[in-house]
Fold this sequence. Notes:
Blueprint: H1 2-6, H2 13-31, H3 34-52, H4 58-71, H5 75-84, H6 95-107, H7 113-123, H8 126-138, H9 142-152, H10 159-169, H11 175-196, H12 198-207, H13 216-227, H14 233-246
Helix pairs in contact: 2-3, 2-4, 3-4, 4-6, 5-6, 6-8, 7-8, 8-9, 8-10, 9-10, 10-12, 11-12, 11-13, 12-14, 13-14
Amino acid sequence: DVVRAHLATETSSTLVTAVLDRTLGPVRSRTASPDEVGEVTTGVAGACLAGLALSPDPEVAVALTRGVVATARDTDLLERWLATGRTDEGVDLDPSLRWSALARLAALGAIDGERIEAARVADGSYAGDLGAARALAARPTSAAKAEAWAAMTEPDVSNRLFESLAAGLWDASRPELCAPYVDAYLTQGPDIARRRGQGFSLVLGRNAFPSLALSADQRSRLAEILESGDVPTVLARQWNDALDDLS
């Protein structure tokens, strides 16, 4: 309600970014119930579009555009922005915004793997490879989620690729689709952390923690694993923080 009432008229890009990060991060993924996720997402999209309609300064407009491409359900709008390379209000889509829009379209089931691969080839950069990995993982199918988790558990997967895959894998609006990989993440996480070391453990525990509402059983499982004392220190610190938030 606060976002709906005030985000559109906020004049600080720093505050807009902070509010969106908080609302689309902890609030949507840990506070909102699965039934409320859609309402939160739609509310943020509407507030961001309302703000863009007020012709804010360029930095605020970019921040609001990032909010739209992360939440919009209007596939026609996203496709129009991608086709023209800019929003209806004149914000140019940089590569990051383009890939965020493609990932959103993928999560909505509006584009397939061929479209994503074509975009990756056209991009031709490592950032494009990461964007494509995220978009492929975001597709709302069991096969896409299985492929994403398989790639995340490759022995030599890089920190950045792991994080990008996780960003696409977790979907707060479809917890049942992600449930097998929440369980796999909790079960396999300590072994992955031991094998990959402290730097990777930080990414594993902080950046790749499931960004969706955990069930009571999943929270209990996380607590049991931590109580076992068999979790490497860096990962245990991140997981304990997450458990505190969830509780």
